[in-house]
Amino acid sequence: MSIFQTNSLPGRTVKTTEGAEFLWFSGTDYLGMGHNEDFRRLISEGLDLYGTHFGSSRNNSLRLSIYDEAESRFSDFVSASSAIIVSSGMWAGQIVMKEIEAVVFQHQESMKIRYHYAPSVHPALWGNDFVASSQSWESWAIETVEKINAASRDLTHIICSDAVGSPMVSQFDFTIFNSISDGPNTWLVIDESHSLGALGGKGNGLAGKFPTSLKQQTIFVSSLNKALGIPAGAVWGSKHVTDSLRKSPWYAGASPPAPAYAYALSRLLEKKVYEQTHAVLIQNIRHFSNRITALDLFDSVPDYPVFCSKNPAFFGYLLDYGIMASRFAYPSPSDAPVTRIAITALHQKEDLDRLAEVCKKFQNN
Fold it and tell me: Three-state DSSP class for 104?
């Protein structure tokens, strides 16, 4: 595996510590918020107002109102009844997995729970009795529906899945779960880390793609430190779910994200900066996609910024032409590496044209 070091934040380009410069098509900063001037100004304002961190429990007797404000604006953005913000995306998933059974038992009489883990589901959603699946997502989903429909009525089912495939990108059809006959006894826990900010009409994720029959029992979690650029995580869904999580010792005992970032998140949402930047991202994705229509090189999803290839020679070929993508085993060292290209809102048309040109050369070799 090739490893490079840099002393600067990548944007359109990246310079390594050895002095080589590349066009940068990697990472998860899809909206380019790391270099967004509005974001930088708002972080500076937040630091002036709140300092560098808030060393306290969110459940303390003195509370910073900016967290509630940011959560309210965020829940409006993702069309949810309620949301909470925590320190990271990993913790957003894990606090749900630690408390999901308590949430279920508050609202259902069932005392038996069965988990159904989707293939390649992110470790943030690994919980009790986790078993990895080697099936395709569609086969797993169909089989899961069959198992749920054949199960006894005293069993509650918890389905855990990413919203979109990663690192090998793929699109999932969640309408399959409309066939579940025992909806009230089925819960969905969905990780939107790679879709929030990148997919949806305004970059607001895929909430509208999930079965309405399971709306009250669907819990979304996400890192905010990808497209949205906020070093934090979020959980959203029904208010009774977030209210339960707020009472959890896992919530009370965890430090919150820095309030300056909560301030920036609130103002970015208020000013619709994410929505505007998402429109630029979509233009860039379509510009690149239109130039590679004849290629059979990538796994991709319409209007999604990630393009993946399993060809082991592709990563090195891109490097030879001054383009850096990513290629590493994820999430564990034993997983097969994937060459992953990420388009961002920072890229210029000439960057995308250059990338398309090199991709065509590679396939025609």
Answer: helix
Query: Do residues 130 and 202 share a domain?
Result: yes
Query: 342: which strand partners?
Result: 306
Predicted local distance difference test score (pLDDT) of residue 330 = 67
- Domain with 279 in it: 13-30+273-364
Task: Please provide the distance, in angstroms rounded to a whole number, between the alpha carbons at the two ends of the chain.
Answer: 23
Tokens describing residue 41: 């100004």
CATH number of the domain within which 131 lies? 3.40.640.10
Model confidence over 343-362: pLDDT tens digits?
A: 999 999 999 999 999 999 99
Question: Is 120 within a domain?
Answer: yes
Q: Name the domain count of the chain.
A: 2
Residues 201 and 222 reside in one and the same domain:
yes
pLDDT in tens, 275-292: 999 999 999 999 999 999
Query: Do 148 and 165 share a structural domain?
Result: yes
22 inside domain:
yes
pLDDT score of 334: 66
Give CA–CA dist 57/54, Å, rounded.
Answer: 9
The Cα–Cα gap between 330 and 346 comes to: 25
- pLDDT score for 166: 84
Q: Kindly state the percentage of the chain with pLDDT values over 70.
A: 97
Pairing of strands 218-223, 112-117: unpaired
Residue 6 is classified by DSSP as: B
| Tokens (6 digits) for 104 | 């279920």
Whole-model pTM: value is 0.94
- Place 237 in a pLDDT band, splitting at 50, 70 and 90: very high
253 pLDDT exceeds 70? Answer: yes
Last-in-domain residue among 235, 270, 305? 270
Burial class (CB in 10 A: 0-12, 13-18, 19+), 290: exposed
Nearest alpha-carbon partner for 219 in 100, 127, 133, 102: 100
Rounded CA gap, 213 and 318, in Å?
46
